[in-house]
Amino acid sequence: MEIFGIPSQALFGQLLIGLINGSFYALLSLGLAVIFGLLNIINFTHGAQYMLGAFVAYLGLTHLNMSYWVALLVAPLVVGFTGMVIERTMLKRLYKLDHLYGLLLTFGLALIIQGLFRNAYGSSGMPYPAPEVFMGAFDLGFMFLPKYRAWVIVASVVVCLATWYVIERTKLGAYLRAATENPSLVQAFGINVPRMITLTYGFGVGLAALAGVMAAPIYQVNPTMGADLIIVVFAVVVIGGMGSIMGAIVTGFGLGLIEGLTKVFYPEASNTVIFVIMTLVLLLKPAGLFGTQK
Predict the structure, then answer these.
(1) How many Å apart are CA 229 and CA 225, to the nearest integer?
(2) For 86-108, what is the mean pLDDT?
(3) Rounded CA gap, 31 and 209, in Å?
(4) 164 has a pLDDT exceeding 90
(5) In this predicted structure, what is the pLDDT of residue 210?
(6) How much is the pLDDT for 51?
(7) What are the pLDDT digits (tens) for 218-258?
């Protein structure tokens, strides 16, 4: 069976790959959007923290026999805690300065972290097994859907929507948004704003670590895995709108699918299509598809 002259199995296979990539684009850009939207920090360390999540899972398995399910809980907590230490000791000094200072600091931290892990573990990928429960695939008739990839897609959607709901529809989210606009007023209500900011940064970093654990069985564990992805994720955030939670989610999944379709119909453009879209969006709507001009 062919669709637009393309074998259906090849088309749906690339759409699946695009949806998988989109799941990680959405999770990572969501973390970036949370950090920028609530803290006004452009967190270039995000890719390194994604890599750290995968390494926590890998080292936990090799040294502590830690299961995948435990790693899903432990890695975001461990990496989130390191993120909170970075926020308390470094980033808090930059909040009143231009965004460029935060970008330069986090970029430098990313290079240091990646360099340390590359020196310790080399540049070759290390395998990380998927849980036994996700071995095999679902037969959909027109294609086989690997169970682990189906889990990644569903888990990413659930985490993204839960995060959006907490930030946009709960009292906690209202406090967070208010703290970015008028911290002194929120402080007057007895809320510890600096602690809230620290926890928010830790949460955004934890989302990156969670994505790293889920990516490990698919892409292997590699010290440069975050560096290869972070530029694309920043493009996703810019297209969706800096700081827009829903923009990060919709754009992440949408661009993953567009990238997958491009590999089918025009493979030569698959590595640049996201940046072409980013250029067009910046020309037509500089604030992003879901962003608002401040």
Answers:
(1) 7
(2) 89
(3) 10
(4) yes
(5) 97
(6) 97
(7) 999 999 999 878 999 999 999 998 878 899 999 999 999 99
Joined together, the tokens standing for residue 283 give: 């020309």
d(CA 140, CA 142): 6
CA–CA–CA angle 11, 13, 17 (5° rounding): 115
Signed CA dihedral, 60, 62, 63, 68: sign only: positive
User: How far is residue 282's CA from residue 272's CA, in Å, rounded to a whole number?
Assistant: 15
CA distance 256 to 233: 11
Overall fold of domain 2-284:
ABC transporter involved in vitamin B12 uptake, BtuC (1.10.3470)
Nearest-angstrom CA–CA distance, 60 and 57: 5
Residue 277 has a pLDDT of 95
Classify residue 126 by its DSSP letter. B
Q: Which two tokens stand for residue 291?
A: 């962003």
Distance CA 237, CA 246 (A): 10
Q: Are strands 2-3 and 6-7 parallel, antiparallel or unpaired?
A: antiparallel
CB 243 within 8 A of CB 37: yes
10 has a pLDDT exceeding 80: no
Q: How high is the pLDDT of residue 2?
A: 57
C-alpha torsion 276→282→287→289, nearest 10? -40
Q: Please name the residues in contact with 114: beta carbons below 8 A apart, sequence gap of 6 or more.
A: 48, 51, 223, 224, 226, 227
What is the C-alpha to C-alpha distance for residues 217 and 152, in angstroms, rounded to an integer?
10
Residue 214, CA distances (Å) to 57, 90, 99, 226 in order: 9, 29, 31, 13
Question: How far apart, in Å, are the Cα atoms of 99 and each of 87, 120, 168, 272?
Answer: 15, 32, 24, 27
63 near 82, Cβ under 8 Å? no
Give the Cα separation of 294 and 287 in Å (integer).
Answer: 9
Q: Name beta bridge partners: 146.
A: 137
With a pLDDT cut of 90, the percent of the chain lying above it is 62
DSSP code for 224: T
CB atoms under 10 Å from CB of 93, counted, come to 12
